[in-house]
Every structure is written in structure tokens, then in C-alpha cells.
Amino acid sequence: MRGASDVVLTALMDALRLSAIERDYFLDLVRQVNASGRPPRHGARADMPPRLQQMADAMAEVTVLVRNRWMDVIGGNARAKALYAPVYAEPSPNLSRHVFLDPAARTFSPDWERMADINVGTLRLALARYPDDADLIALVDELAAANADFRERWPQHPVMQFGSGTMVFDHLTVGRMALQHEQLRLLADVTLVVNVYSAAPGSIDAQRFAALG
Fold first, then answer.
1. Alpha-carbon distance 25 to 12, whole Å?
2. DSSP alpha helices (H): ranges in 102-170?
């Protein structure tokens, strides 16, 4: 891949019929070979930007959860804290550690297998973009050492992310809910991801979702 032209790379991606996410992943791997094209590393963890927190609090009718590339939950509104109560109960809320190290995650996420696959795929994407990130590498090593399910999935190189769709939660207080999910990235800081959840109007899910408020 060293020195390969854009024409060659595009032809290869077309021949392999890569999805948009897979193309991004592939190009990040190419950048590792061609170091001059590697994205700059953002080192220190940042706190929740005050303006973003203000916006999240104002969006009281939906759940707004903000994470960084290390899968740390760095902020969210009140409904996020209510929905993700098992995650917020941990000393340092982290979505990957919750999925693979917290036994309660399998009950909280009825579709746990899918959540586990997406979680590993998301870490794969992050590590391809930031291959020298010591904290990312340490997180992967920690999960691999502690969890057999993670060890099985990691070598398979899944490449995926949450994107948009439906996520099911089995909430301890209000019961099971199928929520619509959208994942957004910030132009001001591409390392942060905003997850927004809402319920279909008039559904039993909406009634239970409203109870979180």
C-alpha cells in the first residue's frame, strides 16, 4: 500500500465492494503505512464542553449521551443518566467495560451479542485511526485479558459502529423499551460522539421512555 495512488485504492475498494465504514477503515490502515497521511493524535481526554452540556440539558424529551473515542461517557442529560443507570453506577463510566466486564450488561441489553459485536467494531475503527494511542491499546488489552467473548471477537476484525437504528433496553425500573437511535459526530471535535435516543410516538415504548423523565 505504500505510495499507492488514489485511483488504485478506489479501484480496490470498488472491487471488494466495501461499505462506507469499511472504506474509512481501509484508508486509515493505508495511512498507517504512509505515515505522512496519518491523522494527528489527540492525546489528553477532554471534559464535556459546557456549551454541549447546555444543549444536551435543553433536549429534555430525548436521551443525549456523549462519549469519546475511548468509549468513556463524558456527559449527557438527565434522561441519559436515567436510561444508562447501570453504566453511570460505575466509578468511571465506560461503554466497553460495561458491555464486557459488567455481568448486568447481558440483562440490560437483550441483544447483547449485537452490542458486543458493534462495540468491538467501534474499537477497531478507533484503533485504525489512532494506532499509536496508548490508552486505546491498554483498553483493548484489558478487555482481552478479562473477557473470553472479547478475545473471540477481536481477531475477527469486525468493522462497524452504532450509526442509526433501533436499540432495545431492559430497564430495571420502567421495563423493556425499543428506542430509535442516532449517532452524531461533532465538527468541532471529531473525537466526540453524540448518541441520541427517542421512542416512537404513541407506543408503549414512548410511555416507558417518558417515565424516565
1. 14
2. 105-108, 112-129, 134-146, 148-153
Q: Residue type for 178, please?
A: A
State the DSSP code for 171.
Answer: E
Check if the beta carbon of residue 62 is closer than 8 Å to that of residue 79: yes
The values of phi and psi at residue 127, to 5°, are: -70, -30
What is the spatial distance between Cα 208 and Cα 58, in angstroms, rounded to a whole number? 20
pLDDT in tens, 159-191: 887 778 999 999 999 999 999 999 998 888 878
In DSSP terms, 197 is beta-bridged to: 63, 181
How far apart, in whole angstroms, are the C-alpha atoms of residue 179 and residue 171? 12
Residue 82 scores a pLDDT above 90? yes
Q: Given CA atoms 98, 100, 101, 103 in this order, what sign does their dihedral have?
A: positive
- Strands of the 73-76 sheet, one edge to the other: 73-76, 63-67, 193-198, 175-185, 164-171
> Could you tell me how far CA 144 lies from the centroid of its own chain?
18
pLDDT at 168: 96
Using DSSP's 3-state secondary structure scheme, residue 196 falls into strand
Whole-Å CA distances, 174 to 12, 82, 87, 179: 49, 10, 16, 13
Hey, what long-range contacts does 55-63 have (CB within 8 A, 24 or more apart)? Answer: 56/80, 59/196, 60/213, 61/198, 61/213, 62/196, 62/197, 62/198, 63/179, 63/195, 63/196, 63/197, 63/198, 63/212
The answer, yes or no, to whether residue 101 has pLDDT greater than 90, is: yes
